[in-house]
From TrEMBL:
<dbReference type="GO" id="GO:0016491">
    <property type="term" value="F:oxidoreductase activity"/>
</dbReference>
<keyword id="KW-0560">Oxidoreductase</keyword>
<dbReference type="InterPro" id="IPR000262">
    <property type="entry name" value="FMN-dep_DH"/>
</dbReference>
<feature type="binding site">
    <location>
        <begin position="81"/>
        <end position="83"/>
    </location>
    <ligand>
        <name>FMN</name>
    </ligand>
</feature>
<dbReference type="InterPro" id="IPR008259">
    <property type="entry name" value="FMN_hydac_DH_AS"/>
</dbReference>
<dbReference type="InterPro" id="IPR013785">
    <property type="entry name" value="Aldolase_TIM"/>
</dbReference>
<feature type="binding site">
    <location>
        <position position="260"/>
    </location>
    <ligand>
        <name>glyoxylate</name>
    </ligand>
</feature>
<dbReference type="InterPro" id="IPR012133">
    <property type="entry name" value="Alpha-hydoxy_acid_DH_FMN"/>
</dbReference>
<feature type="binding site">
    <location>
        <position position="132"/>
    </location>
    <ligand>
        <name>glyoxylate</name>
    </ligand>
</feature>
<dbReference type="GO" id="GO:0005737">
    <property type="term" value="C:cytoplasm"/>
</dbReference>
<keyword id="KW-0288">FMN</keyword>
<feature type="binding site">
    <location>
        <position position="258"/>
    </location>
    <ligand>
        <name>FMN</name>
    </ligand>
</feature>
<feature type="binding site">
    <location>
        <position position="263"/>
    </location>
    <ligand>
        <name>glyoxylate</name>
    </ligand>
</feature>
<feature type="binding site">
    <location>
        <position position="28"/>
    </location>
    <ligand>
        <name>glyoxylate</name>
    </ligand>
</feature>
<feature type="binding site">
    <location>
        <position position="134"/>
    </location>
    <ligand>
        <name>glyoxylate</name>
    </ligand>
</feature>
<comment type="similarity">
    <text>Belongs to the FMN-dependent alpha-hydroxy acid dehydrogenase family.</text>
</comment>
<feature type="binding site">
    <location>
        <position position="160"/>
    </location>
    <ligand>
        <name>FMN</name>
    </ligand>
</feature>
Length: 363
């Protein structure tokens, strides 16, 4: 692998992070489900779609600034929910929250954070934050997390719906991945439960989620969540037009088109290829967010042109965290913003709103 001193792009951050994160944790972060076809497809999809540059447009003042559910953001790049940030850095989600705040970005901490959601909220200060949720078997424990997020100043709940069970993560099974005592989820579960749930052919992480997640919930259960909290509800993990329509009919505030970073269903299609059908089905009735394989400002522009209102980055934020703590997260987000603004100038679209369908050509 090429040696990198000064990271100039996200690939450089990945190379630097890899050298800092222990192998079984690295595999958990980098890996996908099954043969990792979905993981590869997410990246491959970007290679098939080209931008259409317009010239002689005034691009002397390009800005990536945008608004999402009332939040003013420096760019349309949001920090995706990812579990266990202490795998990447001892300050974990506290550093991620600070780093995102310094970049003017929205951060969505995972319910599987290594620091309690109240502490993560405090670390982010006045910056916007949404709380990610998995629907837990234990309805009272689940409700308690919802109440805590509502009380701690989170401004939306992001329910992840593509993980009724966890995907088949072969890397984790081969590594018999278990979490160290300092990397346990802080919002839930007794530490001891986790350390003792290792089972053959599986991993502690997989076993834990099988026990914790309620695989029986349906669209009808969303009413319970809406009764429990007044916060806007975002559904993450929508991958068909049918479900996008149902989500809108159920009054969600936004949806996230996602295949969970290729970690769940090992489908040989990238989320970018799914985005247009979802955008068409939603027809402007709520914001559509997108994630999966966004690694450059160019990628961000392509997703926006295909109809996304914002994109999430998962692994790249963890690379920044591993490389430089809070400052590393800020650097990764600023790098994407700078790259996006350069691409905006080069395609003659000086604002986020101006990056419309005419900005892409499909090969
Ligand atoms: C290490 C890791 C942990 C993740 N944990 C969660 C999680 O707790 N909740 C969730 O909704 N998504 C989780 N995801 C999925 C991300 O939110 C996001 O959909 C995905 O990482 C986007 O793809 P990208 O990594 O290519 O940017 C996780 C992803 C990774 C890589
Ligand atoms: C119990 C696993 C939750 C984290 C997660 O969503 C992921 O690893 O993708």
């Amino acid at each position: 692998m090429r040696m990198v001193d000064q990271p100039l792009c996200l690939d450089d951050f990945e190379a630097l992070a890899r050298a800092k994160i222990r192998q079984d944790y690295w595999d958990y972060i980098a890996g996908g489900a099954g043969a990792e076809r979905a993981l590869a497809a997410n990246r491959a999809a970007f290679a098939r779609i080209a931008l259409r540059p317009r010239v002689l447009v005034d691009v002397s003042a390009c800005t990536a600034a945008t608004t999402l559910l009332g939040h003013e953001l420096a760019s349309p790049v949001v920090v995706a929910p990812t579990a266990y940030h202490r795998m990447s850095h001892p300050e974990g989600e506290l550093a991620t929250a600070r780093g995102a705040a310094d970049a003017g970005a929205l951060y969505i901490p995972s319910i599987f954070s290594n620091y309690p959601l109240e502490d993560v909220a405090a670390a982010g200060g006045a910056a916007p934050r949404w709380q990610q949720l998995y629907w837990l078997h234990d309805r009272e424990a689940f409700g308690a997390v919802v109440d805590r997020a509502t009380a701690a100043g989170y401004s939306a709940l992001v329910l992840t719906v593509d993980a009724p069970v966890i995907g088949l993560r072969l890397r984790d099974a081969r590594n018999a991945l278990t979490l160290d005592a300092d990397t346990l989820p802080a919002n839930l579960f007794a530490a001891q439960d986790l350390l003792t749930t290792r089972s053959e052919g599986s991993s502690a992480v997989a076993t834990q989620s099988l026990q914790a997640f309620d695989a029986s919930i349906t669209w009808d259960d969303l009413a319970w969540l809406r009764d429990r909290s007044p916060l806007p509800l975002v559904l993450k993990g929508i991958a068909t037009a049918e479900d996008a329509r149902l989500a809108v009919e159920h009054g969600v505030a936004a949806i996230v088109v996602s295949n969970h970073g290729g970690r769940q269903l090992d489908n040989p299609i990238g989320t970018l290829d799914i985005l247009p059908e979802v955008v068409e089905a939603v027809a402007g009735r709520c914001p559509v967010l997108f994630d999966g394989g966004v690694r450059t400002g160019h990628d961000v522009a392509v997703a926006l042109a295909l109809g996304a209102d914002a994109v999430l980055v998962g692994r790249p934020a963890l690379w920044g965290l591993a490389v430089g703590g809070a400052a590393g997260v800020t650097q990764v987000l600023r790098l994407l913003q700078t790259e996006l603004e350069r691409v905006m100038a080069l395609i003659g679209r000086p604002t986020v709103e101006s990056i419309d369908a005419s900005a892409v050509r499909r090969a």
